[in-house]
Design goal:
57% of the residues lie in helices and 10% in strands. By secondary structure, it is mainly alpha-helical. Among the domains are: 51 residues; 132 residues, Cell wall hydrolase SleB, domain 1 (Arc Repressor Mutant, subunit A), CATH 1.10.10. Helix 4 crosses helix 5, helix 4 packs across helix 8 and helix 5 crosses helix 8.
Length: 269
């Protein structure tokens, strides 16, 4: 009995050993690469030194035959560079628009000045009177008689009143015939200069100033237009005593004072 039991145990152990050996052989067979397969893989790696793996849109990875990986930046523009380029583009457009507005403003200003000069030239041409030497001398004498002690502006203003009366073409001022001499010599219109000879006038202290003022008035200069649109038609000395009748004519009227004279465009009835 004892011998049979030992034999059975040995048989069981032998079976276990066989089973273990078969299992180990099977596992080893599965994990070992066949020689033919190994040869194929080796040939493939030899024909392709490296493979390229694109990891991100902005970078490229290279895997060499040795297994090392090399990363390189792609040629595509990064988001930051795009923002910078867009910013520069907008800045350039803004600068171009600014320059365009500046050019337009300069052109408009040049056009305005040109039109202003043309208008001034037309106004001057319209108001310039083709005078004779005697008319110039007579107007200068009246300026001398009325305003020789006044400033240059005051002298020109007196001469301008005579020219404004001429431009009205009204018989009230003796201007119906378009003659400056008739306007200057109309009775009671201006100071009487009948006793002032040409020689006496030329030798007076204010001759040059009065001639200059007369020339300016004949050329269309009129300081009273600073206040009245069409210039003054009357004036009087604010420090001179006048009659009650003259006071009623001027009572409450709108005047523009230059020196000792008050210039106006109307009289009370």
């Amino acid at each position: 009995m004892e011998t049979q039991r030992i034999i059975r145990l040995n048989a069981i152990l032998l079976c276990v050993v066989v089973i273990l050996m078969v299992t180990v052989a099977f596992i080893f067979d599965k994990t070992t690469i066949p020689k033919e397969t190994e040869n194929v893989v080796t040939a493939s790696l030899a024909s392709k030194p490296h493979t390229v793996e694109v990891t991100t849109p902005s970078s490229i990875s290279y895997q060499t035959a040795s297994g090392s990986v090399i990363s390189a930046t792609s040629s595509s523009i990064s988001a930051k560079e795009k923002r910078q380029k867009e910013k520069m583009r907008k800045k350039k457009i803004k600068e171009q628009r600014r320059k365009k507005r500046l050019q337009q403003k300069k052109r408009a200003e040049r056009k305005r000045l040109l039109e202003q000069k043309k208008a001034q030239r037309k106004l001057t041409e319209a108001e310039t009177y083709s005078y004779t030497h005697q008319e110039l001398l007579t107007l200068a004498k009246i300026i001398w008689a009325e305003a020789r002690g006044e400033s240059y502006k005051g002298k020109v203003s007196v001469g301008a009143v005579a020219m404004n009366r001429l431009n009205t073409k009204s018989s009230e001022f003796g201007a119906e015939n378009g003659s400056l001499m008739e306007v200057l010599l109309k009775k009671w219109a201006f100071a009487d200069i009948s006793d002032l000879s040409d020689e006496e006038f030329k030798n007076s202290d204010y001759y040059d100033d009065c001639i200059k003022a007369a020339l300016a008035a004949l050329a269309g200069e009129d300081p009273t237009k600073e206040y009245f649109q069409n210039g003054a038609l009357f004036f009087y000395d604010i420090y001179m005593d006048i009659s009650e009748k003259q006071k009623r004519y001027r009572e409450g009227i709108d005047t523009y004072k230059i020196g000792c004279h008050a210039f106006h465009v109307e009289l009370n009835d």
